[in-house]
């Protein structure tokens, strides 16, 4: 099986390293030729902070190239799966151009992004593609161009992301064998993975968690667990949560009855984490807020609902990462 991975960042390198180790044919598509060269020269290391032995893939076993060569290569030599591990901004701003020569192809694609809105966009760009969503609780942090830390083991669910405003769960589609074979290779690589009929519910569940935890940790510059340290912080979290739940209810999006408790539980379970949004802010990178809280604003607008807090927190966080004029 040939799996193309676009986006050689934290998640992309984690998947690439462990999948190559398990014997999968992986082609890594990087933004820069510098990273592609570094991977081929130095190899790829997946490290652990808990004493687990690292996985090392020698450079001579690695196919890595700049993403600009992706479409031509796929036209000549199609892969079986395209795994997209770009952040949302690159997904929306760069991917359409990269995929343009392939727009009439019926590729199997799986998207690992947090947030919402990208699956619909991808289906517009690639009308004949089978688009799958992956929700993962794995945690990865890229340290250098060739080294990634597998910071937390989690679970990955893959399902067809037929998303609209509400969340009816699609039946497992007829071409599910492709997804099953992808899951099988993830399992062989040591990930805990499954095909799920409930991936939409999981996408929205994660959206809710990220919409409460991520922007507040970014604004207050605190670890996830520190959100629980004061009544004032909990109050702001609860207000963001309540607005989001109003939107979910209006859109018919299913959510756990105790969704608030789940958010608190995630804060506890990841108490020492720097959220991905805070990490982006600290590194002066664009955040994914537009596709997290921004997507709640979009859903609210479609229903004529006001969500002033989500709108405001979006503007606040976007303002933090804006380049000076
Ligand atoms: N990391 C994690 O543990 C998890 C991440 N996710 C989600 O997965 C997605 C990816 O996250 P993560 O891996 O952390 O992000 P990273 O920023 O670490 O990786 C994104 C990668 O995309 C690359 N990229 C940017 N533009 C292009 C382009 N035009 N062509 C090819 N590659 C490009 C970047 O290259 P460069 O570095 O050269 O700019 C970078 O290597 C996000 O949506 C995130 O929310 C979900 C769950 C867990
Ligand atoms: C669950 C959480 C908040 C863990 O840090 C996360 O997904 C993120 O940081 O994006």
UniProtKB/TrEMBL annotation:
Ketopantoate reductase N-terminal domain span: 4-160
Catalytic activity: (R)-pantoate + NADP(+) = 2-dehydropantoate + NADPH + H(+)
EC number, UniProt record: 1.1.1.169
Major enzyme class: oxidoreductase
Pathway(s) this gene product operates in, as recorded in its UniProt entry: Cofactor biosynthesis; (R)-pantothenate biosynthesis; (R)-pantoate from 3-methyl-2-oxobutanoate: step 2/2
SUPFAM superfamilies: 6-phosphogluconate dehydrogenase C-terminal domain-like (SSF48179), NAD(P)-binding Rossmann-fold domains (SSF51735)
Domain Ketopantoate reductase C-terminal residue range list: 199-319
Function recorded in the entry: Catalyzes the NADPH-dependent reduction of ketopantoate into pantoic acid.
Matches recorded under PANTHER family: 2-DEHYDROPANTOATE 2-REDUCTASE (PTHR43765:SF2), 2-DEHYDROPANTOATE 2-REDUCTASE-RELATED (PTHR43765)
Protein name per UniProt: 2-dehydropantoate 2-reductase
Origin species: Paenibacillus auburnensis
